[in-house]
Every structure is written in C-alpha cells, then in structure tokens.
Amino acid sequence: MRTLIAGNWKMHGLQARLGEIGAITRSIVAHPSAVDVLVCVPATLITGAVQAAGGVLQIGGEDCSAAEAGPFTGDIDAAMLRDAGATSVILGHSERRQNHHETDAIVAAKVAAAWQHDLATIVCIGETEAQRSKGNALKVCGDQLAASLPDMPPGARTSIAYEPLWAIGTGTMPTREQIAEVLGHVRAALDLRFANAAQPIRILYGGSVKAENARAILATPDVDGVLIGGASLRAEDFDAIVEIARGRSAG
Ligand code: PGA
Fold this sequence. Notes:
alpha/beta, TIM Barrel, 8-stranded parallel β-barrel, 8 strands
C-alpha cells in the first residue's frame, strides 16, 4: 500500500498561494519516491494549482455536489472538479457535516457521484470529545463509516480519514493506541463489507498532524497516510511531512 500524504487547505488561499504548490512540486521532483502526494484546495484555485503541479503533485477538491449539472446555485459537481483537473475530493469533512448539516446519507450520495466520475475520494469520519468520553468513539465511527459509503463497489483510490473532531486544529492528539484502535475497527468493517475490494482502501489519520508528530503517526498500525490541514498551507511544513513518509516507504 502506497502512503498517501494529503493536504486540506480548507478556506485558505488566494492565487498568490499557488507558489506553495510550485514549491511542493519542485520538492517532489527533486526527491522521487513511492509516496502519493495530494493537496486539496478551494475550487477557485484548482485550475491554477493543477498547472503549478505539472502532473507531479495531485490536486483535489474539498467537496462536491451529489447532483449532476442543474439548478444548484453555488454548488460544484464531480464532473466539474474533474474538468478543472482535480483527481480527488474530500467528502464528509466534519466542518461540512457541522456547518452545512451534511448527514451520512448526503455524504454517501456525494461519494457515489465522485466514484461515478472516477475521482479518488477521502471520506472523513470522527467522533466528538463528548462521544469519546462516553466511550462511544468506536460505535460513532463505525456507524458513520457504514452510512457514509454508498451501496456499490468502492471506487478506485478510496481512502477513509479518521479525524477525531477534538483533534482538528487544536494541537491535541489522540494517543497512538487510540488511533490504532479506531483504524483497526475501520479496517475490519471495510473487510467485512467489501471483502477483497477493501484491500486497496487506504485509511488515513487526520487532526493536528505536523512534522513533529508525523513519524509516530505514520508508524502506527493500520495508518496508510495522513490528512493535514494547517501544516499543509506552507510548502516547508508540508514537505517535512512528505519527507518523513518517504523514509517510511523506503524503509
Ligand atoms: P488540522 O486539520 O491538521 O489543521 O488539524 C485537519 C483536517 O481538518 O483535515
């Protein structure tokens, strides 16, 4: 399984920031490796980012509509992401679930649309602090996983990102044991549901990942990569994490 290092710029980035994409691309060219590197950017930056990435670095979107072209003002569908040059999309991020009331069913419909358009998907799940403290983390994540994937064979290059809400943008991290427990649960659920087709599905950890903790996270059982918010905004920070992943895949 190739390691996936994915960035999530969220609602950050004017055209001027595309220089960071150029810098990340140059670093990948200078250090070829078996690590898959992806940066998901705001829709307005996709075309420019794809140009700056020159096919070396993958560029993704941060959401797409479950619908196909139609009267949906302000929405962007999976075909439009592909048309702009994106190869991936993040779906069901907790910020969309919370701020845009996206239910598991909505997320599953979006995932189906993305799979139909051959977009690699990163489907996010994760519990709140209150759910964890009540001992419900595994159940919450398992239920979200089950209901956020559509009833069809998983699309190529599907990833699941475990992002505990209390770890996103907070600097607070779960222990490696906590990560391994949830990821083991996710892996078992995927195997049960999709049998052999589950094998290529990568499971990522996300939430306060930075160069200082990436080595330990990437060495945690069942971790196939990371989804990085804040530390993906500057090429220097992001490259440091890609560099750690390179060492992992080489060793
Ligand atoms: P963070 O965000 O790395 O800034 O915690 C991760 C995410 O929300 O995907």
